[in-house]
Amino acid sequence: MKEKNRFFAEVEAVDAKLLQASAAGNSYSLRQRTAERLVLFSLAGHMINVVSKEQGCGPDFIMCGQLPPLDQPLAEDGWKLADNCLKIPFLTQLKLASGRSFDSTERFVIRDFPGHMKSLIVRQIRKAKSPELNDLEGRLKRLSDTIQNHLIEMSELPLISVVGFGGGFPGVGDAALCGLLLTARNMALGRRFRVGWYKRLTVELKRFLHRTGVHGRNWLSYAIEGRMTELQQHFFHAMLKDFECSDEIVVKKVAADPLINGTAFLMGVNTTLDMVQAGFFNP
């Protein structure tokens, strides 16, 4: 029986890793709020997203049947994650075990180049061009040129120029790196495409996480661990199948998703696909 309350309705889903983390009993503060999303941070910078069911689940997400209306006051401090519950001061508690368990770490073994999806991604990016995204495109190009010249050890400056760049939560640079890393990871699992640079770039990126904000650090850490939202999982599942009709639907959904700064995420995906298309195949 799902736990119900008049503020959040029932807990629909919770990330399995967040359930494990609840044993630590950490305290959180509310730092961002919209009608569809509450963003909590611990003193150590760990992020929890409490979202409405329309947003889907994701890494360290708690998905509820509804969120309180914006005119309902919520305490900023004193939120507690402990004993499989999120305790909300002066209001209620969310029993996390009452929802389905979501596995944010997913493996997509991509062995074939997703030509249909690549074309749709390029088309979507062109529609959304802005001065900031044009700047991001140049920064990603410099980073990919370094990688393609087998100079990962020389990627420090191009990588620094992308980490923490631009607006949004996460910023466009961090969102693009998430797309780049997750795509490379899934292609590495397929063992057909030459993406050996992926692990070395990940090591480099870990050195520079301090150069971005708390949103970016969390999202980049998720990408490094291979953790994704439900929509990102649907995206890579569609990439695996590469049927033009389903590709078009999911690419548009990703582009419109503010949670992951969707268009920038697609630009990172496209950067990896460009490198693969340029000849990074195993002999």
Please explain how this structure is put together.
This protein is of the alpha+beta class and about 280 residues long. Helix content is about 45%, strand content about 15%. The chain has ten helices and nine strands. It has helices spanning about 15-20, 115-125, 130-150, 155-160, 170-190, 195-205, 215-225, 230-240, 245-255, 260-275, and strands spanning about 10-15, 25-35, 35-40, 45-50, 60-65, 80, 85-90, 90-95, 100. Strands 8-7-6-2-3-4-5-1-9 form a nine-stranded mixed β-sheet. α2 runs parallel beside α9 (about 245-255) and α2 packs across α10 (about 260-275). The longest helix has 19 residues, at about 170-190.
Question: Which keywords apply here?
Answer:
283 residues, alpha+beta, 10 helices, 9 strands, globular
Order of helices and strands: EHEEEEEEEEHHHHHHHHH
Gyration radius, rounded: 19 Å
Q: What spatial form do the alpha-carbon principal axes imply?
A: globular
Distance between the termini: 55 Å
Strand ordering within the main sheet: 8-7-6-2-3-4-5-1-9
Segments where pLDDT lies below 50 for 5+ residues? none
Q: Tell me what portion of residues adopts beta-strand conformation.
A: 15-25%
- The proportion of residues forming helix, as a percent range, comes to 40-55%
Tell me the total number of β-strands. 9
Mean pLDDT: 90
- Please outline the major beta sheet: 9 strands, mixed
Helix- and strand-based class? alpha+beta
Number of helices: 10
